[in-house]
Amino acid sequence: xxxxxxxxxxxxxxxxxxxxxxxxxxxxxxxxxxxxxxxxxxxxxxxxxxxxxxxxxxxxxxxxxxxxxxxxxxxxxxxxxxxxxxxxxxxxxxxxxxxxxxxxxxxxxxxxxxxxxxxxxxxxxxxxxxxxxxxxxxxxxxxxxxxxxxxxxxxxxxxxxxxxxxxxxxxxxxxxxxxxxxxxxxxxxxxxxxxxxxxxxxxxxxxxxxxxxxxxxxxxxxxxxxxxxxxxxxxxxxxxxxxxxxxxxxxxxxxxxxxxxxxxxxxxxxxxxxxxxxxxxxxxxxxxxxxxxxxx
Length: 296
Fold this sequence. Notes:
Elements lengths: L9 H14 L5 H13 L3 H6 L7 H15 L4 H5 L1 E4 L2 E4 L12 H11 L7 E5 L5 H9 L4 E6 L2 H13 L4 E5 L11 E6 L14 H4 L15 H9 L4 E10 L5 H10 L3 E7 L5 E8 L1 E2 L2 E2 L3
Parallel strand pairs: 3-4, 3-6, 4-5, 6-7
Antiparallel strand pairs: 1-2, 7-9, 8-9, 10-11
């Protein structure tokens, strides 16, 4: 490692950092080094190549060294920088929440497509909201919608509230377990990215995920399906007739979650794929109200 008190130019700093991160087993070491150095220098990544001989001050060198050491210990890049882009919006993230992922954008995009065909403003409920990525994105792109967001973690809700304030959207945040805090209310659309990793698989995940992201947001029980079974039981009480549910799932859980929802009385259940062609979202409609079949 270079000495903390000796300035280095951008080019030398990147070469060292990328080599060090590669030795530590970090994926995309060069990219991560560029992102962290650009953050330290308060500039864009392209500027690193426009000014490769720009010297780092001792303070900048020390800050960059600390961040590279943290990344080498496999702390996620987003927790170090405190930000992650999602749906073209910049979200604050901390170790209290899952890092928003591009795969989840499929769920939001499907919600926006469905909402575009609805004749009235919508009442939307987002469960397991975490950073608020889904709820904030829907509130941002559907400004006439009323959005509620629930999470069991007070720390996660604080992050979600920060993101709502950052993007100037009005969301009703509630702390509690799944749909329990909104008992007695009904919604046109319910979304959730619940914990869906089988408990025994968490330790097999990459250090950035299994060792850094909150286990509470990962652990889906023995087979990863515990929360889908609970949602299938709880959602009929909070969905309006003709309402829709959109759930993110693991890549190999589509058929199982589809069956769980069908058995609970949902209709038009379908599995949607992400850009990689993997199962990612299950969408379903609710045609009952208060346990009575409206079509009977």
